[in-house]
Amino acid sequence: MFSAGSLKIYCAVLLAAASTCCRAAPKPKLATGWRPIVSFSGRGDDQTQSFDMDSGVWRIKWSATHEDEPGTGRLRITVHSAVSGRPLSVAVDHTGPGKDVAYVSEEPRLFHLVIESAHVDWTASVEEAVTGEVAGSR
Q1: How many other C-beta atoms lie within 10 A of the C-beta of residue 40?
Q2: Burial 103-115, CB ≥16 within 10 A → b, else e
Q3: Contact partners, residue 30, CB within 8 Å, separation at least 6
Q4: What are the percentages of helix, strand and coil residues in the chain, rounded to 5?
């Protein structure tokens, strides 16, 4: 049958083959990025066009600039359901010039923003969170 030496070699080869075929595949690394949806800008009050969000997490990158006189500028951005029109949350409530990012967590649907602004130019860029596999992470 097998000699003691060949049996050891056979067992070693069998163990090596079993250990490589039974390993779990490495899990891919996931990362979150931001996909631009729509941008708005203006001066004074406005209601934006509606936009559709497919995920429940998104953000508004906003800025308020060119304040007429120090202490007179304000910017308030309220998120509304474009289906019912009802206000869902105040994303930004800022006095004076500035910029920041406001994060929104709502069920996917159509939205619009209501901008209340006085004595500043404003911008608002809406971006949706997207999660994907990092290339080469397997």
Answers
A1: 20
A2: ebeeeeeebbbbb
A3: 131, 132, 133, 134
A4: 15, 55, 30
Please name which of 84, 39, 76, 35 lies closest in space to residue 57, comparing C-alpha atoms: 35
Instruction: Quote the number of domains for the chain.
Output: 1
Q: What's the pLDDT tens digit per position in 6-54?
A: 445 544 555 555 555 556 667 788 898 999 999 999 999 999 999 999 9
Any domain includes 25: no
DSSP 31: E
At 129, which CATH number?
Answer: 2.60.120.380
Residue 49 lies in domain: 30-133
Give 131 or 104, the one with higher predicted confidence. 104
CA 134 to chain centre: 16
Helix (H, G, I), strand (E, B) or coil at 21: helix
End-to-end CA distance of the chain: 43
